[in-house]
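Let us work through a complete example step by step.
Step 1: write down the sequence.
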Amino acid sequence: MTATDPGPGLRALLRRPAYRRLWLARTISQVGDVAQFTTLGLLLIALTDSGLGVAGAVLAEIAPVLLLAPLAGSLVDRLPRVRVMVAADLVRVALAATLALWHDGPGMAYAVAFGLSAGQVFFSPAAQSLLPTVVDDEELVAANSGIWTAAVVAQIATAPVAALLAVDVGFGPAFAVNAVSFALSAVVLRSLPEPDRPRPVSVSSPFAHAREALAALTRIPLLKALAAGQFLAALSAGATSALLVVLAQERLGGGEGFGVLIACIGIGAALGPLLLLRRIRDPRRPLFVFGPYAVRGVVDLVLAAVTGLPLAAAALVVYGLSTSTGAVTFSSLVQSRVPDELRGRAFAGFDVLWQTGRLLSLLGGGLLADAVGIQAVYLLGGLLLVAAAAVGAVGARAG
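Step 2: predict the structure and record it as tokens.
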């Protein structure tokens, strides 16, 4: 790849049946996930009339990651990854269909949210680990960009449609969309070939297998830097993302302002791979992972200071753009630097770090907002992101 050649494009990758099937399956699943998230929030508000009731669904989605990720990563590195993904989809078909039929109480909603998240715990590291076997190393950035952009576009397009369907037609049909999406994803994935690969296993227990991977991964300095940066970023993003509605309500135009801010994040996230990644020679360098943390930190500091909606909206376009750039380069960097036999456990471990930091951030951010004010949440969030950029960059340089 030369300095003037940004690498292979998405259109060329989509001509390949294997990547096209993986891309299509993940896009279809994302449509269902967005429909589920949107409809579940509306259902729990209707059933509980409580913000705490909605927060319970977030906890139900985080808990499976913390409980099951070590097992999931081990199985992904031991078993054919396509089969793991298909099995996860089929389980989620049954769960989503159950909620489409029975959704009269919050208990069923929380149970299904837990189960669907558990399926995602197995599906996501398998899909991320499979991608480097479908495309070449220099194509990873374009491949991840295509998946990310499709997911963002699906989110922008699906959320309002799902809300309209739930309100005007009913919760059952809206949840049924999710069940259908998982069924279609499984059908698409079934014919995806997976190349044979060695799976050396020196221990029998999945949790011992996870510990074996941890010992191997900690010997890669770059991964330790990525882990430190991601955890600090999660400590920031959990609260600032969840409490953006509070910031909008108190300082940036209320409910209408909140809608504008969310749209601006989505616009930036969709544009990131298109405007930036094609113009970077090698986006898998650590600079393009840790740099976006610093950009997002500056945006949070701006949000803590401003009261005008136009400036906040413009800042959040930049936030979304840097989020997408960082997410794509993060995945590409891990996929290119981690050996195939460790890749599932590496992605599962990063999921645990992210969700642990997110949970702590949600709890601490809510308390800080009530005690001091919403500005303090964004001020601290900005400083944590700047610290994530600094710690990660120093660690990567040392490695």
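Step 3: interpret the result. The longest helix spans residues 17-48.
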